[in-house]
Amino acid sequence: MSPGRVEWLPPEFAVVGDETFPARHVWCVGRNYAEHAREMGADPKARAPVFFSKPAAALINSDTVDYPASTDSLHHEVELVVFLGRGGRNLDPVECLERIYGYAVGVDLTRRDVQAKAKQAGHPWELSKGFDQSAPIGPIVPAGQWVPSEESLIELQVNGMVRQQAVLGDMIWSVGELIARLSCEVTLHPGDAVFTGTPAGVAALEIGDRVVARIAGLPSLAFTVRQPQAEG
Ligand code: MN
Q: What pTM was computed for the model?
């Protein structure tokens, strides 16, 4: 390694079976479905997408998720997650779609009370979004085997009850448009994941809840929220 240069070593993130994906960075977008934007008190058409991050280590593919510290309001947000096989900057939407490695169902777990306090105080959202196990995802399907369509159903159930349900066509910014916008802000790299926003119906999870998240045509994501484990 040359002096002053930090080389990035990708973590081998287990996806499913023998497949792994070297996750580099998790990008997320706030309010990308009109109804959810309204439920959070925003005008969907008024503004450019708001991007934020989670650490790559927040990704988890597991049957359980530990209830995090410092919250009484752990919210679920079902989202289509896009994984980049190639990066770039100042890309157009078509170039972005060509650089997608694959797709998965994900849940952007959010400490809503922590986020509300941060917003009120004008503080960063960081710890409301980027905590341990805050980015559960299902298996990644290669882009050649599945593409998002306007009619694709996106849904999240808790203990068998539907909490969130929409179609991908309800997105304010399409997958290509979102990544293109992001690529004008930062250089994107292979291994970057993009959570593309959540439809209306976000609500709190309790310990013991069984979460099943689905997008038509992708393998579903299922996990149980469990008591935080004592430090080992
Ligand atoms: Mn989200």
A: 0.91
The answer to whether 69 and 227 have CB atoms below 8 angstroms apart is no
Query: What is the CA(183)–ligand 1 centre distance, in A?
Result: 19
pLDDT in tens, 168-224: 999 999 999 999 999 999 999 999 999 999 999 999 999 999 999 999 999 999 999
Q: How far is CA 85 from the centre of its chain?
A: 17
> In angstroms, what is the span from residue 195 Cα to ligand 1's centroid?
7
Q: Residues within 5 Å of ion ligand 1 by Cβ?
A: 77, 108, 198
Angle at 116 between CA 201 and CA 109, to 5 degrees: 50
Q: Residue 98 has which token pair?
A: 């060509």
Rounded distance from Cα 114 to ligand 1 centre (Å): 15
Q: Is 128 helix (H, G, I), strand (E, B) or coil?
A: helix
Structural domains for the chain:
28-226 (3.90.850.10)
Q: 16 C-alpha vs ligand 1 centroid, how far in Å?
A: 23
Ligand 1 center–CA 130 separation, angstroms:
11
Calpha distance 102→82 (Å, rounded): 6
DSSP summary character for residue 204: E
Tens of pLDDT, residue by residue over 64-107, are 999 999 999 999 999 999 999 999 999 999 999 999 999 999 99
Residue 196, both tokens: 């593309």
